[in-house]
Design brief:
single chain, 196 residues, alpha+beta, Nucleotide Exchange Factor Grpe, Chain A, domain 2, 3 domains, 3-stranded antiparallel β-sheet, 4 helices, 6 strands, 59% helix, elongated
């Protein structure tokens, strides 16, 4: 749809330029038929006017080209956002499974040492793949709540300043500078004073 707008604007520019030249031809004929006017002065003014219109048209064309190039760049840069969101769900499930294995005392022996090393390698490769493709996690815990990057699920009484994130329930991610998924968090609120 944006490319249609650009094409329409480009077509309008062409029509405006053609109309300006058509009008200038008619004015030149009128000047030649009217002996009272100074034809050279009138032609110089007309040349100035046409140069001004041409420069404006060129500037507008250049602006349209820049807009088109930026849109094309954004399309390429962010085209993988839907796929990235789907991969984040897989990454979440892998992380939960890895946490169960790593934190379970039954797997803290030499028999599962290779499994734990393999899990750590998979985690590192997943993080590296995300970074290579512009996907970064949002740091949340201990930060001030930002509605642009966080979604508060609940409030927890805490000694920390109101609105400080005390727990991250689900990681949030950005693709370059655009939000892919907000972090699901718990935020602090002041403890009620029970001595009153």
């Amino acid at each position: 749809m944006k490319s249609e707008n650009l094409q329409n604007m480009s077509q309008d520019l062409k029509e405006n330029i053609n109309e300006a030249f058509k009008n200038s031809d008619e004015e030149v004929k009128e000047i030649n038929n009217n002996p009272e006017k100074d034809p050279i002065k009138d032609l110089e003014e007309k040349v100035k006017e046409l140069n001004d219109k041409l420069l404006r048209s060129l500037a507008e064309t250049q602006n349209l080209r820049k807009i088109h190039d930026k849109e094309k760049e954004d399309l390429i840069k962010y085209s993988s956002s839907n796929f990235a969101r789907e991969v984040l769900n897989i990454a979440d499930n892998l992380e939960r499974a890895f946490d169960l294995l790593k934190n379970n005392p039954e797997f803290n022996n030499d028999k599962f040492k290779d499994v734990k090393v393999g899990i750590e390698l998979i985690e590192k490769e997943l993080i590296n793949s995300f970074e290579r493709n512009g996907i970064q996690s949002i740091e949340s815990v201990g930060k001030k709540f930002d509605p642009n990057y966080h979604q508060a699920l609940n409030e927890v009484e805490s000694d920390k300043e109101d609105g400080t994130i005390v727990n991250e329930i689900q990681k949030g991610y950005v693709l370059y500078d655009r939000l892919l998924r907000p972090a699901m968090v718990s935020i602090s609120k002041k403890k009620k004073d029970s001595t009153k």
